[in-house]
Design a protein that fits this description.
The chain has 249 residues and is α+β, with helices and mostly antiparallel strands. The chain has helices at 12-15, 18-23, 61-73, 90-95, 111-121, 131-134, 137-143, 200-211, 217-228, 237-242, and strands at 81-87, 146-149, 171-177, 182-187. A four-stranded mixed β-sheet has the order 2-1-3-4, covered by helices on one side. It is globular and about 60 Å long.
Length: 249
């Protein structure tokens, strides 16, 4: 990449801004940000927000839940796996491109690792992407058995989520066992997507997982109740004050 701090238009930050980075050079439609502003209902008021229930790539959520369900359904022992084929959309592959979990950050955007830890732990929370867990040799051995491909029938999922049927999360996972058995499961949505809204209890569990080790148990309980009754708060500063870390007593 050529860096140009004071160069001509189309270089440096003018080229590699947020819109180009996430949509591809010139593929953004910034006018949609203000379309209908002051006239239509705000996007935040519509049931289109996606809640990321698992660390890392949002579009791999359906695969995570499919892997967990499959492993639970047959009481899968990872040692019995011969290989795994994870078929995903172009978008999912693009935003999670790392073939190996080189560290705790890249593991979140490594589809083979995500599949490996979901099949093994039957969970995909913060603990599954912690440095110690990522370094487990047994997981790395399973990662090497997992292939990620974008099949022809999922190639059309390019563009903005929801437009023209685009669904970044659609996927299939096929597990071949050493005894010759072949298990295939597919999915289109995950918990927290507009099509599968997460319940308050699900959201609270995610909040507790993220807050543990930062807030005290008492603070987590207190703030959970405040968030659940957000509309009844007289002043939002009550919540922000309750969220401030407190010294241990």
């Amino acid at each position: 990449m050529r860096h140009c701090w004071h160069g001509s238009e189309g270089e440096g930050h003018q080229r590699f801004g947020l819109a180009d980075t996430f949509n591809g050079i010139g593929n953004h439609r910034l006018h949609l940000m203000v379309q209908g502003l002051g006239q239509d209902e705000l996007e935040l008021g519509r049931p289109t927000t996606m809640l990321r229930m698992y660390p890392g790539c949002t579009s791999s959520g359906a695969a995570v839940e499919t892997a967990i369900a499959l492993a639970t359904e047959i009481d899968l022992n990872p040692a019995d796996i011969d290989d795994v084929l994870y078929e995903c959309t172009p978008h999912c592959r693009a935003v999670a491109p790392y073939p190996e979990p080189l560290d705790d950050h890249k593991s979140k955007f490594c589809l083979p690792y995500t599949m490996a830890v979901a099949l093994t732990d039957r969970k995909a929370g913060i603990a599954q992407y912690a440095e110690k867990r990522v370094a487990d040799p047994a997981l790395h051995a399973l990662v090497r058995k997992i292939r990620v491909q974008v099949p022809d029938d999922l190639q059309h999922h390019r563009g903005q989520w929801g437009e023209n049927g685009v669904n970044w999360a659609e996927m299939r996972v096929t597990v071949r066992l050493k005894n010759g058995a072949m298990l295939t499961r597919g999915g289109r949505y995950a918990q927290g997507y507009p099509e599968m809204p997460a319940s308050w209890e699900d959201q609270k569990a995610k909040y507790v997982e993220c807050a543990e080790g930062i807030l005290s148990p008492a603070q987590i309980d207190e703030t959970s109740e405040m968030i659940a009754g957000l509309e009844r708060l007289d002043d939002l500063r009550e919540l922000t004050a309750a969220l401030a870390p407190r010294p241990a007593s």
